[in-house]
Amino acid sequence: MSLQEVSDRVEKALRAADRPEGSVKLIAVSKVQPNERVEAVLNQGHRCFGENRVQEAAGKWPAFRDMFDGIDLHLIGPLQTNKARQAFELFESIHALDRPKLAKTCARLAQETGTCPELFIQINTGEEPQKAGVLPSGADVFVNECRGLDLTIKGLMCIPPADEEPSLHFALLAKIAERNGLEGLSMGMSGDFEKAIKLGATHVRVGSAIFGERVVA
Ligand SMILES: *Cc1c(COP(=O)(O)O)cnc(C)c1O
């Protein structure tokens, strides 16, 4: 596939769901991709990208920002507290806020710097022990805790278990967001972004369908 093809499929899924054109943000997940592939997508005019590691993003995005205006970079992987300051400098959005300690650090950095990336709380909808995220049963309490720290929460994010029907997880995430008055839903990847759009995704995170298979060194 390609950027154009994925964009077309995103718009088609929006029409099928009776949703407005352009109402979902396509995050091109560029982790581990060679720079030539990323640059090719930038040259096609795309500006919204996702990375899952702070270190990797720090190694490539400052140079791309010098070359291209309007880059909108999303951290979609876990964030260690000691890298939060760097993440504030590198990213427009953070999708994996998942614990009180990190929320407190973000609140402190937001006060200190006067700005804050858009924040999504990651929910472990499948309650998988190896996966990050707040359990569904703890979601409302954590949203309120973040709000109590004066953090503005944009929405929720999930990564469904690999072997389960993703739609069930997308629907659960949408339900938790709705009852907490949150508009953002970061859900859907290469294999299931159309299902996610049908269930209300505002941000889809698509890697291999745009760039081709990841080349692992
Ligand atoms: C890698 C990654 C993606 C993209 O996965 P693809 O299957 O290549 O589209 C999306 N979300 C997260 C959190 C990821 O780590």
Task: Give an overview of the whole structure.
GO terms for molecular function: pyridoxal phosphate binding. Residues 3-214 form the Alanine racemase N-terminal domain. Pfam families: Ala_racemase_N (PF01168). By secondary structure, this protein is of the alpha/beta class. The protein has one domain (3-211): Alanine racemase (TIM Barrel, Alpha-Beta Barrel). The chain is 42% helix and 16% strand. The chain has helices spanning 3-16, 35-43, 54-67, 84-90, 100-113, 139-148, 166-179, 193-198, 208-211; strands at 25-29, 48-51, 72-75, 93-97, 118-122, 153-157, 184-186, 203-206. An 8-stranded parallel β-sheet has the order 7-6-5-4-3-2-1-8. α7 (166-179) links the parallel β6 and β7. The longest helix is centred in the first third of the chain and has 14 residues, at 3-16. The model has no long low-confidence stretch (mean pLDDT 97).
Count of DSSP-assigned helices: 9
CATH architecture: Alpha-Beta Barrel
Order of helical and strand elements: HEHEHEHEHEHEHEHEH
Rg, rounded, reads: 17 Å
CATH superfamily: Alanine racemase
SSE map:
Elements (H helix, E strand, L loop, with lengths): L2 H14 L8 E5 L5 H9 L4 E4 L2 H14 L4 E4 L8 H7 L2 E5 L2 H14 L4 E5 L16 H10 L4 E5 L8 H14 L4 E3 L6 H6 L4 E4 L1 H4 L6
Parallel strand pairs: 1-2, 1-8, 2-3, 3-4, 4-5, 5-6, 6-7
